């Protein structure tokens, strides 16, 4: 088995909104998730759970059916899995928030000669800037962890006073490559609880 941990520092993923104060290590009171929408074959209705941490500094998305796989009896369409999530956080007027880091965790069983791939984007408005594809070369049989870190200068902040929704696009796929015609590969489902997890770490600011 081989465990892979990817870490990527994103310097210019988005442009900061002007007119906000310094980032704070403490969330304002009354923060809550007010809206969540999911579309895609990786997050069909009833297969995702979103929760906010007690301190308001992170939220977690858990997927129970976000799987990419191929095999002799698996349809070709199953080799690619996508999910688009929109999340809105409510907070008192005068505050804004941004994503400073994201942890993606899951499990993969990739055949020798095949590979699994993962990519994600996060933005409030405009065109997203995707992260590079993370490649898991077979043979691979283990948990995996991908971490995206966004520099303070490169962060995009939600519109002040409760406006805007964070748009998250996540994609995973498996490619047969040089693996045999009867080979099988799967990416996403955690080995213990059959779930894949994304944890979003966020910062808060006061609006000027």
Short overview:
The chain has about 210 residues and is mainly β. Helices cover about 0% and strands about 50% of the residues.
Radius of gyration: 18 Å
The major β-sheet equals: 8 strands, mixed
Number of domains: 1
Q: What would you call the shape? A: elongated
CATH class category name: Mainly Beta
Protein model, in words:
It is built from no helices and 13 strands. The protein is mainly β and 208 residues long. It has one domain: Jelly Rolls. The strands form 2 sheets. Strands 1, 3, 4, 5, 7, 10, 12 and 13 form an 8-stranded mixed sheet that branches. A hairpin with a 5-residue loop joins strand 3 and strand 4. It starts with a strand and ends with a strand.
Helices, strands, pairings?
Blueprint: E1 4-10, E2 32-39, E3 48-52, E4 58-63, E5 68-70, E6 80-90, E7 95-110, E8 115-123, E9 134-137, E10 140-150, E11 166-175, E12 185-187, E13 196-206
Parallel strand pairs: 1-10
Antiparallel strand pairs: 2-6, 3-4, 4-13, 5-12, 6-11, 7-10, 7-12, 7-13, 8-9, 8-11
Question: Which structural traits does this protein have?
Answer:
208 residues, mainly beta, Jelly Rolls, eight-stranded mixed β-sheet, disordered N terminus
